[in-house]
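Q: Please design a sequence for this.
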């Protein structure tokens, strides 16, 4: 059975380190870049709620949250997590992911996903990694599909958004047998990005 625990991972100029209260200022600045909390299809905190966001993430029983740090500058770029860990099924999900607007559509998301997927499959021994997003978050759906994840379906009226509206959730997964091809494709994408 897998056991997801806090760990520090590093690759391609990024470090994923366990999210902690000292990341409050960096998280506030990242959320402020693009006023991301105003997007109804994300869970980005309002800047004044950054510390509460961290506290909530740390209190969740089956969530392992990370701060995404640029290793060159030390600047926090966003956050991501393992969550909904099911040890008996050797399953984790990757989510609660958001980045400062200035690094969206850059190498950051692909690099972070490669780090987290590699750790999940190659170190933890996961049989499957899940991803999910808001049914109206088409940018996130496209990003997950670009990873090569399989679209499993839609859970209708699954949860309530921050604004009180009901949210459909789109579920995706990657199986261990699919991981080698996806890993190669992600490395190739990063090589192409580095060449541009």
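A: Design:
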């Amino acid at each position: 059975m897998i056991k997801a625990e806090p760990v520090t991972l590093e690759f391609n100029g990024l470090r994923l380190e366990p999210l902690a209260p000292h990341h409050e200022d960096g998280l506030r600045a990242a959320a402020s870049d693009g006023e991301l909390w105003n997007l109804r299809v994300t869970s980005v905190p309002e800047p004044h709620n950054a510390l509460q966001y961290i506290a909530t993430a740390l209190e969740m029983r089956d969530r392992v949250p990370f701060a995404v740090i640029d290793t060159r500058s030390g600047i926090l770029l966003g956050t991501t997590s393992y969550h909904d860990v099911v040890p008996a099924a050797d399953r984790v999900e990757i989510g609660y992911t958001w980045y400062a607007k200035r690094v969206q559509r850059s190498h950051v998301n692909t690099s972070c996903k490669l780090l987290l997927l590699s750790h999940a499959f190659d170190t933890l021994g996961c049989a499957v990694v899940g991803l999910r997003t808001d049914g109206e978050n088409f940018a996130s759906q496209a990003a997950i599909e670009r990873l090569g994840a399989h679209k499993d379906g839609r859970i209708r009226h699954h949860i309530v958004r921050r604004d009180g509206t009901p949210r459909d959730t789109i579920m995706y997964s990657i199986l261990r047998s699919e991981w080698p091809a996806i890993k190669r494709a992600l490395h190739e994408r990063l090589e192409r990005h580095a060449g541009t």
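Q: Thanks. Anything notable?
A: The chain has a mean pLDDT of 93. The first helix runs from residue 24 to 32.
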